[in-house]
Design brief:
The chain has 21 helices and 17 strands. It is an alpha+beta fold. It has 3 domains: 294 residues, Alpha-Beta Barrel (7-stranded beta/alpha barrel); 165 residues, no CATH class; 139 residues, no CATH class. A hairpin with a 2-residue loop joins strand 13 and strand 14. Helix 7 packs across helix 8 and helix 19 runs antiparallel to helix 20. The longest helix is centred in the last third of the chain and has 30 residues. The N and C termini lie far apart (66 Å).
């Protein structure tokens, strides 16, 4: 899956469509990822007889962006997944169930050669960081493949990947035997094959059982765990030590199919208890049964669209069934490709003096995402040609974050669905907007030509007639510059003690703060230090919040406001507020910290609801006390 975080906050916002959960990550975790870590097996009387961690029994991959979210928000589930791989290594002579994934679900054949390498390297490094071992295999997003992609995998020492049967073109028993052309994916998928590459390297390819996989995804096979087990254990051609692989969206087991995790656990237990088949994983099977036959692939194909990679760059005719056209896909691809090329040009130009090799530094910069203590300093020491000044270090981090956002804006979900106004496309466009924002110190003219290109992408609805309208109405409101983040922190402090971490992207340290209440009004004045966890940039900000009562709040923020100017301002504001001259207080705030200002509308939806709920409760309590007093005085 691709990232769901707001790029400015590095946090997933409240998503009402996922109710009663906070967001879709949380909902799918509860319905699927967590349940498969503790799947129930029932007996004939529907009593629980066993609870199992299915990750110890199935081959699986977890995208690095999802893994990052799980580590933060569902640590028990995260730990159970890692434990499943550890247990599987004990059961399979050191070969683990987990396989890696290209970093953020890009369509590899549509990425630049440099980006292909980085996607694979980041996927490997993220895997090593979590599982403490090198991955034997890697899942390609949507199984989109070409020879160049396989070359990248092989160059990075990946041993195997998994494809759909229809992605095979021709096969032969060995170098001396003739090629046999494959029609409609009809060939023996119960053995691995060797794909010889132009470089002289090779890649092992496993092909999944299309019929059983389709049964799980679309034909209700998960309605009966026993029937599922029978399909998995069905005889294979020629007998012998064959392997049957089933490849499905992991969300099938509990999210798409309720109780699907129970059907999976039941089927696996039946297979484990029987004597006809043995549960294994790709690495363990490959170690015992290396390929003897060669195979060649149909390039630029994928598992989820008969038109291959066209679904992610053209109106190929495929959609999820909601109607409308997808003529927006090609212009969107063109716009994203153009922007990525511009970002790469800027990066190469301005990172040249900061890193010995900017592209090697980018490949290793995955270490700077949630770095451990000392990792940032070690990274700079390793890649900088000389000691960097503080402003150079910040520029280096900013350029690397620009590149990360440039990767995230290519995630495949942005093209897969039916309309350019869908949340998945809005998500990748928000990453594009963040990348443009990060580029501003070096290039301030990227946004206008990017939006012009989006204007050529037609939508399906009057509210979103083209990509430019989507960008204006659905992407821009997500932009959260640092002054707004400071204002969010200040305004929430009206009703609660805010966290030092406004969002994972920003850490705040309060330097000075004063508060005064008078006549149902409230004034907050303060100064704080703000630091970005993603770029290392920091600043000091002064703020003032005037609460008129009810839901009326006026807040102004200024970055870089010096302490020697702040203290006289604080004194003046407190004196005027004490005299209850609110108009003068607001003019003073705007004169010193304005003219831009913020209101409760600028809070994130969940914060706004919480603050409004508290303010409303306070107001109702005050009214209740007033009514009681009036009643008591006039009874």
């Amino acid at each position: 899956m691709s990232s769901r975080e707001n790029p400015w906050l590095d946090a997933v916002p409240l998503q009402d469509s996922a109710a009663p959960y906070h967001d879709w990550n949380e909902r799918v975790t509860a319905e699927c990822y967590a349940r498969n870590a503790a799947a129930r097996i029932l007996d004939d009387t529907d009593r629980i007889v066993r609870i199992v961690n299915s990750y110890a029994r199935i081959s699986f991959d977890v995208g690095p962006t999802l893994f990052r979210w799980l580590a933060r928000h569902a640590p028990d589930v995260y730990a159970a997944i890692l434990e499943g791989d550890r247990v599987s290594r004990q059961a399979h002579s050191g070969h683990g169930n987990a396989i890696a994934q290209a970093y953020n679900h890009v369509i590899m054949p549509l990425s630049s050669p440099r980006d292909q390498v980085t996607q694979v390297v980041w996927g490997i490094k993220d895997f090593e960081r979590r599982f403490r071992r090198f991955p034997e295999g890697m899942w390609l997003p949507e199984t989109a493949v070409d020879l160049a992609t396989l070359e990248v995998l092989a160059a990075q020492r990946i041993a195997f990947t998994v494809l759909a049967p229809h992605q095979a073109w021709r096969m032969r028993g060995g170098p001396e035997t003739p090629w046999l052309y494959i029609s409609d994916g009809k060939f023996d998928t119960t053995v691995p094959y060797r794909c010889r590459l132009p470089s002289g390297r090779s890649m092992v390819l496993f092909f999944y059982d299309a019929a059983v996989s389709r049964g799980v995804a679309f034909e209700g096979l998960l309605n009966d765990g026993g029937a599922f087990a029978q399909r998995l254990a069905a005889p294979v051609p020629d007998g012998g030590r064959r392997v049957r692989a089933v490849a499905t969206d992991g969300e099938s087991y509990g999210h798409h199919h309720r109780f699907g995790e129970m059907a999976l656990a039941f089927a696996l237990q039946q297979l484990a208890d029987g004597d006809t088949v043995r549960l294994t994983n790709f690495g363990a099977y490959l170690a015992m049964h290396p390929p003897t036959a060669d195979i060649e692939i149909r390039e630029r194909t994928s598992w989820s669209c008969p038109h291959g990679v066209e679904r992610w760059r053209a109106d190929c005719g495929c959609n999820t069934g909601r109607g409308g056209h997808q003529r927006w896909r090609a212009p969107l691809r063109d716009a994203i490709t153009w922007l990525k090329q511009e970002l790469d040009r800027l990066y190469e130009q301005h990172a040249a003096g900061l890193f010995i090799d900017p592209w090697v530094a980018r490949d290793e910069s995955v270490d700077l995402i949630d770095p451990e203590p000392g990792q940032t300093d070690a990274f700079v020491a390793r890649h900088a040609p000389q000691a960097l000044a503080a402003d150079q270090r910040r520029a280096a981090r900013r350029l690397l974050e620009l590149q990360r956002q440039g990767m995230l804006m290519q995630s495949s979900d942005g093209w897969f669905f039916d309309d350019i106004s869908g949340p998945e496309t809005v998500q990748i466009l928000s990453h594009a907007a963040r990348a443009i924002d990060l580029a501003r110190p070096w290039e301030d003219g990227l946004e206008a030509p990017f939006v012009d290109r989006l204007r050529a992408a037609p939508g399906n609805t009057p509210d979103a007639p083209d990509g430019a309208a989507v960008y204006e109405h659905l992407v821009r409101p997500q932009v959260v510059p640092v002054p707004r983040l400071v204002a969010m922190h200040a305004m929430t402090s009206l009703v609660e003690q805010p966290s030092r971490v406004v969002a994972p992207a920003l850490v705040i340290r309060q330097l000075e703060a004063d508060r005064s209440d008078a006549g149902g009004h409230r004034l907050l004045v303060g100064r704080m230090h703000v630091a970005s966890s993603l770029t290392g940039e920091d600043d000091e900000a002064a703020y003032a919040v005037l609460h008129f009562g009810g839901h009326e709040v006026h807040c102004a923020v200024q970055l870089g406001f010096p302490a020697d100017r702040f203290r006289p301002l604080r004194t003046t504001l407190m004196e005027r507020f004490g005299r209850d001259i609110l108009s003068e207080v607001m003019r003073t705030i705007d004169g010193a910290l304005g003219p831009a200002y913020f209101t409760l509308r600028d809070l994130l939806l969940e914060d706004r609801r919480r603050v409004l709920e508290t303010l409303t409760a306070q107001r109702l309590q005050a009214l209740d006390e007033t009514y009681r007093r009036v009643y008591q005085e006039n009874r």
